[in-house]
Design goal:
Layout: E1 4-7, H1 27-36, E2 41-45, H2 59-72, E3 78-80, H3 83-86, H4 94-118, E4 122-127, H5 136-151, E5 158-163, H6 167-177, E6 182-187, H7 188-194, H8 198-205, E7 209-214, E8 216-217, E9 223-224, H9 233-243, E10 249-251, H10 261-279
Parallel strand pairs: 1-2, 1-10, 2-3, 3-4, 4-5, 5-6, 6-7, 7-10
Antiparallel strand pairs: 8-9
Helix pairs in contact: 1-2, 6-8, 8-9
Length: 281
């Protein structure tokens, strides 16, 4: 059975907060809405903004999250560590770099402890935009960081890296890290925005793909409604069939009209299920 889920916040009106944010005002209700829509999971967000108010940060928050998952049957299997987007230590120099690296270790360790308590098995670290790996030095510094973190983490937790590296370079980086607990979080929108061949990407990365974000983007442009950008979904799903992908599909697509979040998610789910039916079932 395949799991379908949404990125947290997609069932909450944006009200000027942008395309992705933690919905402090509505996060519990999102689980109930997701259940009504027949979704299996919600990918949690841990952002820099107000992170000490995130349910993963406090014992009371974790208890509420446990309860709402039990009541709805909608699970959290992955956490997107968006905190890192604002705190990529390898982009700094000197003492600032050292202080930020220490901070990252402390914050991420706290989140990983919460994940272990809640049986959440995947942490995603975005390495795009302001946290993109641009040099060999940055790659080496991040490699040391992620290996340190995984050595301190329960063996049931895996790390999914979301990068803008070309597929062969990304695969080489994963091989250099050399851990079966570190793989790829594949994002179809990032790929279409960069002009990568999606079939080549997924067949190159193969079983190192732990999770998939579904979205569409115009080449070198913005996120758009599924099927209206440059994402080659036929190529993507042909590749997924070839590698026998068994993981989840997380909707992270364009938001659509404010106030019609449920209708938008229903439409996106039908879109993805159509490709799953065509290529994977």
């Amino acid at each position: 059975m395949r799991n379908y889920g949404i990125m947290q916040g997609r069932l909450t009106p944006s009200k000027g907060r942008g395309i992705q944010f933690f919905p402090f005002d509505n996060w519990e209700k999102e689980f109930r809405l997701a259940k009504e829509l027949g979704l299996d999971e919600i990918e949690f967000i841990f952002d820099f903004d107000r992170y000490e108010q995130n349910p993963l940060w406090t014992q009371s928050g974790k208890e509420i999250l446990k309860k709402v998952m039990q009541e709805t049957g909608v699970r959290v299997h992955s956490v997107c560590f968006d905190y890192f987007m604002c705190r990529a230590f390898f982009k700094k120099d000197g003492d600032i770099k050292k202080e930020m690296r220490i901070e990252n270790v402390q914050i991420l360790r706290h989140v990983l402890d919460a994940m272990q308590e809640l049986a959440i098995s995947l942490i995603e670290i975005p390495l795009v935009d302001d946290s993109s790996l641009k040099t060999e030095t940055e790659k080496e510094e991040f490699k040391e960081f992620v290996l340190e973190m995984i050595s301190q983490t329960d063996v049931g937790v895996r790390f999914g890296l979301e990068t803008d590296l070309p597929p062969k370079e990304f695969l080489a980086f994963l091989k250099d890290i050399n851990s079966d607990r570190i793989g790829a979080n594949y994002d179809s929108g990032n790929s279409s925005g960069l002009g990568y061949d999606m079939y080549e990407e997924v067949t190159t990365l193969g079983n190192r793909i732990f999770n998939i974000h579904i979205k569409d983007r115009v080449y070198r442009g913005t996120t758009v409604e599924l099927g209206t950008g440059n994402a080659d979904f036929d190529g993507l799903f042909k590749g997924l069939k070839e590698i026998d992908y068994q993981g989840a599909f997380i909707l992270q697509a364009a938001r659509g009209e404010e106030g019609k979040e449920s209708e938008n998610i229903e439409r996106q789910t039908r879109f993805v299920k159509g490709y799953v039916s065509k290529y994977l079932d």
